[in-house]
Amino acid sequence: MNAPSSTTGERLVHVPLGDRAYDILIGPGLIARAGGEIIARLTGRRVAIITDENVGPLYLAQLMDSLQTDGFEAVSLVLPPGEKTKSMDGLAAATDMILAARIERGDAVIALGGGVIGDLAGFAAGIVRRGVRFIQIPTSLLAQVDSSVGGKTGINTRHGKNLLGVFHQPDLVLADTAVLDSLSPREFRAGYAEIAKYGLIDKPYFFHWLEKNWKKVFEGGPERIEAIAISCQAKADVVVEDERETGRRALLNLGHTFGHALEAATGYDSSRLVHGEGVAIGMVLAHQFSARLNLASPDDGQRVAAHLAEVGLPTRMVDIEGGLPPTQILMEAIAQDKKVKSGKLTLILTRGIGQSFVADDVPTSEVFSFLEDMR
Ligand SMILES: O=C(O)C(=O)C[C@@H](O)[C@H](O)[C@H](O)COP(=O)(O)O
Description:
Structural class: alpha/beta
Subcellular location: Cytoplasm
Distance between the termini: 39 Å
Domain 3-dehydroquinate synthase N-terminal: 77-189
Keywords: Amino-acid biosynthesis, Aromatic amino acid biosynthesis, Cobalt, Cytoplasm, Lyase, Metal-binding, NAD, Nucleotide-binding, Zinc
Protein name: 3-dehydroquinate synthase
Number of strands: 11
Order of helices and strands: EEHEHEHEHEHEEEHHHHHHHEEH
Bound molecules: ligand LNCXM5UN
CATH topology of the largest domain: Dehydroquinate synthase-like, alpha domain
InterPro entries: Dehydroquinate_synthase, DHQ_synth_AroB, DHQ_synth_fam, DHQS/DOIS_N, DHQS_C
Strand content: 15-25%
Radius of gyration: 20 Å
Number of domains: 2
Strand order of the largest sheet: 1-2-9-6-5-3-4
Shape: globular
CATH class of the largest domain: Mainly Alpha
Largest sheet: 7 strands, mixed
């Protein structure tokens, strides 16, 4: 499962999806040579970059320079940062700018930013002219190991998270690991939750490796690139098997049913909860709920909580600032989960560390009483 390694430490993970196949390049300095990597994969010569007010001032000029040096005509849109930008207003601004720039199907939209920008720009690229080409330049750890890979795009609505969107695979992912040094510790930790998720899904040895090596991943160096490459490869393997989430891909949602409900319940207010933190709490809840159903040992949930708490992530609903609305409100968000089938809940549960599985038809009443008890 290891991604090929070059002498510079750069990694390449290929996502073999037939006519939608693409490469993920992982390593330092990729933004500075983005133009060269993109020109090798694109017929069009126009690009529309979408970024946000945090990332734009840091990397937009460097990206523009590289694109212009390689002969691209580039325009950009800088949006406010944060989950609230993944909205109808954000989508309207993005699609309007792409159309104003006359981006054709062979041209590309480039997402320069974290998961919010990637999901929004990808959705816009997927619907403008029924699909223009799309390049991800993820600048958060979370986006590098998860949201930039696999083609899920979308925006939030008042009914819940990511409820409008399309599957639209990128043509290239450039994960420039040098930019991770500019992340706040909180943002880095939030991305780490998604790295730990791959171990908890089906790679117990990776979770064990993280328990031993997490400090090196946080400090940078070869372990960080290794953890990102393993994560991208793990995600690519699942996506290639089940691109449109008709089965196995749902495993990538470990922790997300609870996590998304918590994000909705906290009004997508990043001062209270960011996505990766919701996923961290959600993964612990998934392990605890599995133990309550006698599917797993309570020791596994404690081990997961201990590791996530050790890196500084929240692991309990009571860790969320400002309290939560009644459990019934959480249940309403859970009822909008995309995995619901014929009105019945599907949860990702586990038989132990690295033994997650898709559980259909989970009784709503059991989930309700569990969440009441965990508050
Ligand atoms: O790629 C997937 O499939 C995932 O579920 C990965 C998740 O970590 C990611 O947050 C995804 O965007 C959530 O998807 P959703 O279908 O639950 O909205």
